[in-house]
Every structure is written in C-alpha cells, then in structure tokens.
Write a structure and sequence with these properties.
With about 250 residues, this protein is mainly alpha-helical. The chain folds into two domains: about 5-60; about 70-235. It is built from nine helices and no strands. Helix 2 (about 30-95) packs across helix 8.
C-alpha cells in the first residue's frame, strides 16, 4: 500500500471533521433542510473564492514577488557594471572604427539627463559593434578579465540570475571571451583564424554589453534618478567622462 502524503491525510481529516460537525448540527436542531441550504450556499461560494484567491490575489502577489526579485537582480547588474562592464565597454569602444562618427551624438551638453539618454539609446541600438581587425590589444583585455574571473564565476553561480536571460547571456559571453584569451599562452602574432575568432567573440560581448547597459540605465532612470545622473556622467562611450573603475591592466 502506498504511503499517503501529509496533504492527503490532512484533507481526509478536515472532511471527517466537517462531516462530524454537520452531524452534530443535525443531532441538536434536527433540521436537515437548514443544513443543506447553508451547505449548497457554501459550496457555491467556493468557486468565487477560487477566482479571488487563485486568479486575482495570487496574481498580484506573484507580480510583487517578481518585481522584488528583479529589483535585486538589477542591484547585481549594477555591481557587475561597476566592477567589469563599464571598464570593458571603455576598452572595446576604443577599437570601434565607427565610434568616433557617433561620438558627438553620445555626448550631449546642455541637455536634460532624460533627453540625453534618449539620444544615446537611438544611436546605440542601431550601432554595428564591429571592431577594427588590426587594432585590438588582446593582452589588455586578458589582463583585465583575469583579475575579474573569480567575480564572474560567483555571478554565474547565482541561480537567481537565470531569471534574467539577457544578462545571463552577457555573463556567458564575457566569461567565454576570458576563457578564450586564457587558453592562449601568447596573444602576439596570432594566426588569422584565431584573430578572426576572437574578433567575433569581442563583437558579441561589445554589443551585448552595450544593449544591457541601456536596459540597466532605463531601470535607473525610472527608479533611481540620482544614480542615473551619475551613470550618465560616467558614460563609457564618453572619452571625457571620469571612469568609475580605474585601469588595472
């Protein structure tokens, strides 16, 4: 005989207790009509109760819980950009052959933060993110990412980040680039195939980092205006901005 779990046992106990109390009611008042009137009314209300609890209250609580989780995830994303993302964007944007052509559009003096950010969004969302094949100094990226590898590993171990698919993709792209660079003892005089492969990895990292940075900035703009203003002043695409992270390479 299969062992019943506690939920089934509890349900049976509650049904037995309910039947006993109905029987007690009958013994005292001898009025089965009254019992069935209230029994049918109670059963009819069960469907409304299921509607309220399951579809409405549960949905509201679920949305609040999801919002709280996303708030915590955005805190993690903020730490990532403070430690890794902003500095990496600064490095990679220097290898971008088209960055100078849109530089003036990414740095707008005299505009409100909201208008300035809207302009940055329009240009970065349609940007190509290709890098110059001759320009990359792989040793700079490798040295920087090696100092952050333990930090990236700790982030990847965070199961809650799986709920933020786009940010998880960014982490995996950055970590993959770090592994590719670490696997090569020397980054000087690389074969064309290796150079092309690394350039493709960098383009993927660069594009995903930039677009995720925009999403994070949108969150700051709506929830933390003071942090949003600071992040704009440290815009990694602005050569005149003061970087948050000092160059450790």
């Amino acid at each position: 005989m299969k062992r019943m779990n506690w939920q089934v046992l509890l349900g049976m106990c509650l049904l037995v207790l309910s039947a006993l109390f109905y029987f007690l009611h009958y013994l005292i008042f001898r009025d089965p009509h009254h019992i069935f009137v209230y029994l049918i009314g109670d059963v009819a209300f069960v469907f409304i109760e299921v509607l309220l609890v399951t579809l409405i209250i549960h949905s509201v609580l679920e949305q609040r819980e999801k919002k709280a989780r996303l708030e915590k995830l955005n805190m993690v994303i903020g730490v990532f950009y403070s430690e890794v993302g902003t500095k990496l964007l600064e490095i990679l944007s220097k290898w971008d052959p088209q960055i100078e052509s849109i530089q003036k559009e990414l740095v707008i003096e005299g505009k409100s933060p909201a208008r300035k950010f809207g302009r940055i969004c329009r240009y970065l969302k349609k940007h190509d993110y290709s890098i110059e094949s001759e320009k990359p100094d792989w040793d700079i990226v490798k040295a920087f990412l090696m100092t952050k590898k333990d930090f990236l590993l700790r982030l990847l171990e965070n199961q809650n980040l799986l709920e933020h698919e786009s940010f998880t993709d960014v982490l995996w792209a950055v970590f993959h680039l770090a592994e590719e660079l670490e696997a090569r003892k020397s980054l000087q005089g690389l074969p064309d195939a290796d150079h092309k492969h690394l350039s493709g990895d960098v383009k993927r990292v660069y594009g995903q980092l930039a677009l995720q940075w925009l999403k994070y900035m949108e969150h700051l703009k709506s929830s933390y205006p003071h942090l949003f203003s600071l992040s704009l002043r440290t815009n990694p695409f602005d050569r005149s901005a003061t970087p948050i992270v000092q160059d450790s390479a």
